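Consider the following input, taken from an annotated entry for Extracellular solute-binding protein (Roseiconus lacunae).
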Amino acid sequence: MVLYCALDEVFARPIIAAFERSTDNEIGVVGKFDVESTKTVGLVNQIIAEQQTPVCDVFWNNEIMHTVRLQKLGLLKPRNWKVASGWPSDMISSDGTWCGFAARARVLLVNAEKLTDKSQYPTSVRELADPKWRQNCAMARPLFGTTATHFAVLREKNGHDETIEFLSQIRDNAVVLSGNKQVAEAVASGQVAWGLTDTDDAIVEKDRLRKVEIVFPDQQADEPGTLRIPNTLAILKDAPHPVASETFADYIVSASIEDRLAMGDSSQLPISRDSEFTPRVMPKNPVRWMEVDFEAAAEDWDKWAKELLAIFSE
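Applying the prediction step yields:
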């Protein structure tokens, strides 16, 4: 079977190899990985271009919004996902065409040398627009990846106009960088006091023993909770190897694979209640997760993306 995979090859390859061993080499996997800068969009565009004569059997995305795009184009196969009981409703599609697993959280990374008192730490994403942090906080341009997904979700929850106004305020107040990794590095180096990034980029700086702390934002009762954005898996509607694809899909969304990703360098967050490993990026206290309708957040994606480009064009 053919897998198009946006997860970094260094993380995906060992899991693919373990799957092949588990089937006693009856199922081989040909993996296609795209370049770092365009991998998700490039793979999605290839799937769309190949829809009349599909090559890809399974799409493993390291985020969700572009998977929902494929769902809305009718290119994915509905199925019954063999997941643990209690799987969150926002982590599986309404029509069964995709399943979310092994998430990253959207967190605030704080430079503990610039902010020595924990009572000074920011606690909400809303503080990106607070003038007291002017040019001393950072965010990635919300045109790609998890930052784009984050603000599409906020648009769905808070409304179009309010979200556009919030983004305009952030543009004028925060240091806007090219990606989440660059935000984490800017915080760790002391360029800014704190920034909005992903748990996988934040934990890298912790593992490097940089003087940083991770804050899971918006935990108060009147706040929305922390957003988590999962990996997603989907089988193509006209997959050339449907039987092998079904076997692979069941293998990937298992608790054991989530645990493996949780143990890795990126410290992914398991969705399954059967998971046995707590990622080192997680805080001691329970986290309130944001309730999300990703399918609604993906509506009018192309129009929304153009509006964001107008605000954040270089």
